[in-house]
Amino acid sequence: MDTALKTMIDNMPEKTGKSLDEWKKVLAGKGFEKHGQAVKFLKTEHGVTHGFANTIVTLFRQDGQEPEDLTTAQYQGKEHLRPIHDKLIGIVKDFGDDVTITPKKTSVSVIRKRQFVLIKPATKKRIDLGLKLPDKPTTERLGDSGPFGTMCTHRVQLTEIDQVDDELVAWMKEAYDQAG
After folding, report:
1. How many CB atoms lie within 10 A of CB 124?
2. 30 and 83: one domain?
3. Closest CA to 155 of 171, 179, 170
4. Exposure class string for 69-106: b at 16+ Cβ within 10 A, else e
């Protein structure tokens, strides 16, 4: 398990008033169809911050499947893209101890106080890297959010590991800084 995620789970009782298992019991039987509905419920009905609510719901919904299994499943048939993913994760982990890596079924959210990066193997040949950079103009490389909609403000399409360069790292760091 990722160190930041473990720390978040360990801090959950103190920060939210309940352990992860207790929160899972709260969500059990509610029948939320969408992730966002459950997050909103925890935030509005229980006063849980967005970061904790998102993590609780993600872990509740993936019960029985470890986060690494979710990531591995995303790259089945796309194994050649996994080194790009791993390099991106390594970079964001170096930004600070407050980074939480949250694998989901089809993507990986990277969260500080809010999501600032989204990594999604979009096709068999491409990873879409979503960034939250409000007020930053788009360029040929730093495109609009595309299919990410409001989850991100920009998208960079990656097909080769060498595309993870200084310019891209600077955008990721800028998104991290703004998420604090």
Report:
1. 9
2. no
3. 171
4. ebbeebbeebeebeebbeebbebbeebeeebbbbbbee
CA distance 114 to 100: 10
CB atoms within 10 A of CB 45: 9
Express each pLDDT in 21-78 by its tens digit. Answer: 889 888 876 777 778 888 999 999 999 999 999 999 888 877 644 556 778 889 999 9
Domain that holds residue 56: 3-64
* Residue 123 and residue 150 share a domain: yes
Same domain assignment for residues 169 and 95: yes
pLDDT > 90? residue 14: yes
Do 80 and 22 share a structural domain? no
Distance CA 4, CA 92 (A): 11
Residues 121 and 169 in one domain: yes
Q: Give percent of the chain with pLDDT exceeding 90.
A: 64
